[in-house]
Structures are given as structure tokens and as C-alpha cells.
Amino acid sequence: MAGLLCGTKRKKQVSDLHEEGRNAINAPMLPTGTDIHPEDTLMEENAERIMLDPTSRENLKFKDLLKVLIDWINSELEEDRIIVKDLEEDCYDGQVLQKLFEELSGRKLNVAEVTQSEIGQKQKLQTVLEAVNELLRPHGWTIEWSVDSIHSKNLVAIVYLLVALAMHFQAPIRLPEHVSVQVVVIKKREGILQTALVTKELTSTTEMMMGRFERDAFDTLLDHAPDKLNVVKTSLITFVNKHLNKLNLEVTELESQFADGVYLILLMGLLEDYFVPLYNFFLTPESFEQKVHNVAFAFELMQDGGLKKPKARPEDVVNLNLKSTLRVLYNLFTNYKNSD
Prior knowledge:
The chain is mainly α. It contains 16 helices and 3 strands.
């Protein structure tokens, strides 16, 4: 009889669990297609869980944002031979986030390199997120992530974190504007699961996002002292021509003549005193992609020469963005102004 009662109790628990799951799945406010498993809905009273709405996962702008972030991480961690393919699967254990934060901040975190256990992974995440939050909070960031949300593979929390890091460290990427997603918020109140659909804004306009950054000398120059801009441009033109004249080349317009990357590559060869093989770049680029390839290759040469990775994007230089071109050339000027 005792065994029968225990068996009946277990069956009732399972039945209650599945009933709770069905209540959540069939809730009036729950979007169609949301995949909630009954075991996922066995929540404590007043607990809350957030899930990405499946329709948002297929949003093209959201997919574009994910791709930009993945490509950025892979670029930053190339020397560590780390390749990220899926943000949820590759970021939840803290390993990638640790390496990314260390690369961006230049700060080494005191954590175990490899952690297989859930406890170890959460401890690593705790250390990483404490360092991140300590860095971002003074700049007004709202913390939209936690150890539990990241470790449970909450994609929205992971993206919030990566966008914040990319913006804070002025990553040389262009984040898609106005990316919003809908999330399903599941709450348990008085034993009943309640659901609601909430919109989360992941990115705003480029101007507003860039507004979080400290404005540099070129922003001030262009906004408040345009009369002095010509003085700066003249100094940079004098500097580049001092070297390009050795190849019988001359620059008169900074924006346009560096936009295809050819002069940047040749200039780096002259500054570092080596010949750049012609098969490494397009000498007469025709397409936008070929020009971007050239500028990106010039950036690689700069890094090989010991310079920091330019904060400008190759695409911005190709698109004749004056501030981006000035930043790149001024970086060369400050490092090689005494070179013959």
C-alpha cells in the first residue's frame, strides 16, 4: 500500500508538472511557436524567466547584429585561435568572455583557464562579470545581464553584454541601428504562470551609441574649430608626401586619395622600409570589396609595425569619412614623424 501511495504521488507530481507546462504554453499572451518545455516551467513562487520570442530570432536585423558581433569577437581573439560560431553555445561558460575582456582591457583576470563543472563555469562568469560591471557602471550602463542569465544561454543577455563592450571599447565595427527583439517574460504568481511579451531595444542610432564615447580631438576640431582643420590636413599632407614622393607619388586630397587603400599600403612599406608584394593587395582596385581589402590589409601592416589596431573601420575610410581617415593618418604621423 505504501509503495502504491508513493507511486501515485510521483505520478501526480509529474501530472502537475505537465499541467503547469501546458498552462504556460496555452497562456493567452504567449506568442505562437514559443518552445517551452514543461520541465522548464517548474519555477519557484515569484520567480521570473525570460525567453527570446522565436519570431525575433528570425529577424534579419537581429541576425545581422549577431553576425557583426561574432565576426568582431573572432577578429579580437584570432591570436588565441578561438573561433566563435554560436553566441549562446560559445559564450555561456565564460571562457570566450574572459578572453575577450582581457584582450579589450589589457587586464589579466585571476580565473582558471579551463572549467568543465557548472560551479567552476559560474565562478569564472562571476569574476568576469564583476570586472565588466565595475568598468561599465561608472559610465551609466544599465546591467542587463547576470551570471545565471549568461550561463543559461540567454541570448538577449549575451547580446546586451557584447554590445556594451563593443561600444565602450569603441570597436571598429558598425552595429546595425534600431535592433529590437521581443522576449517572453514568464512569472509565477500564486502558483499560476503568467506570460507577457516585452520589447527589448538592443541598439539605437549610431549617433546615440557613439555619443557614449569620449569625443576625441577630431570631433572637437570639426565641430568647433573648422578653420584649424586645414592646418591639420596640411601638416598630414606634408608628412605623407615626404615619404610618398620617394615613389614619385603625391597627395593633395586626404579623403579621396587614401580611400582605396593603395597609398596607405605603400606608405606603410616606406615607413617600415620594406617592399610590399603586389600580390598581397589590389594595385588598381575597382570594387568596394577590393578597396576594403586594401585598407584592412594596411591596418594589418600597421599592427605588424607595433601600432595599435586603428579604431576606424576600413569601410569608413573607403566611404571617404574624413574623421576616420584623419585618425588613421594622425596615428601614423605621431609614430613616424621623425622617420626619414
